[in-house]
Amino acid sequence: MPLRSEEEGVNVNPKGSSTIPLKQQHFVLVHGIGGGGWCWYKIRCLMENSGYKVSCIDLKSAGIDQSDADSVLSFDDYNKPLMDFMSDLPENEQVILVGHSAGGLSITQACHKFANKIRLAVYVAATMLKLGFWTDEDRKIAVPDLSEFGDVYELGFGLGQDKPPTSCLVKKEFQRKIIYPLSPHEDSTLAAMLLRPGPMLALTNAQFREDGEVEKVPRVYIRTRHDRVVKPEQQEAMINRWPPSTVYELDSDHSPFFSTPFVLFGLLVKAAAFDIGCN
């Protein structure tokens, strides 16, 4: 069973330590569907001001990437910016991958392909499926179910109106209530200006092959107690299905980089210090 700690960020796992001085650690931050590297602006500021190296990835059709989400039809295409980034890293450099929400799928694929370049994978309220979406149970525990809130999505139909939707975006009038209920209003306002449709068809078709490499990467999960997107019971199901080395919990909504940035920053630094090498 994974070990757990409280939201204050005290790690209860005594094993494992980093051999690289903490201030030389390189964090690579990966956003969820519809977001972008901009989501991490508070965390990036805290990290860089503390001396850490930080890279924020814009996946295809996200952030400043100009691709249309309705043209991104495969997960490999969507995740190519992260995979290219990992490929371009020197062979002797290792990074700490942090994925939020659907960004968990992105960092899992990277763990399958570039295990030797990843010191730690951190899932923040994230999709954590070892092999992606293969079964109905995978979808049940990992795909957000927002039906209780009504008709919340703007859908795109890049393959035609008679085909499954290719993109989605939570309508502006629902964004704060669902995604950012505990976040500062200025951050939910910023998000409403910057969120873009995400390639839902590509994401729900993400599938990975068992190769043994992914288990070489230590994993940490950061739960979000008041999450209305990836609900606590879904997070718990994914943790039980594929147990990480350590589980932390935040008193947060789905977007702790806005609602609890200082505590999230502290947990990421602690994970880098104590959880590397515990698997």
Report what the structure shows:
33% of the residues lie in helices and 16% in strands. By secondary structure, the protein is of the alpha/beta class. Strand 4 (95-100), helix 4 and strand 5 (118-124) form a beta-alpha-beta unit. It starts with a strand and ends in a 5-residue tail after the last helix. The model is unreliable at 1-18 (pLDDT under 50).
Strand order of the largest sheet: 1-9-8-5-4-2-3
What does the overall shape look like? globular
Assess the beta-strand content as a share of residues.
15-25%
The largest sheet is: 7 strands, parallel
The class by helix and strand makeup works out as alpha/beta
H/E element sequence: EEHEHHEHEHEEHHHEHEHH
Map the helices and strands:
Elements: E1 3-4, E2 26-30, H1 41-49, E3 53-57, H2 75-78, H3 80-88, E4 95-100, H4 103-113, E5 118-124, H5 136-142, E6 153-156, E7 167-170, H6 172-179, H7 185-194, H8 200-204, E8 219-224, H9 232-241, E9 246-250, H10 256-259, H11 261-274
Parallel strand pairs: 1-9, 2-3, 2-4, 4-5, 5-8, 8-9
Antiparallel strand pairs: 6-7
In brief, what are we looking at here?
The chain is α/β, with parallel strands linked by helices and 279 residues long. The chain has eleven helices and nine strands. Helix 1 (41-49) crosses helix 11 (261-274).
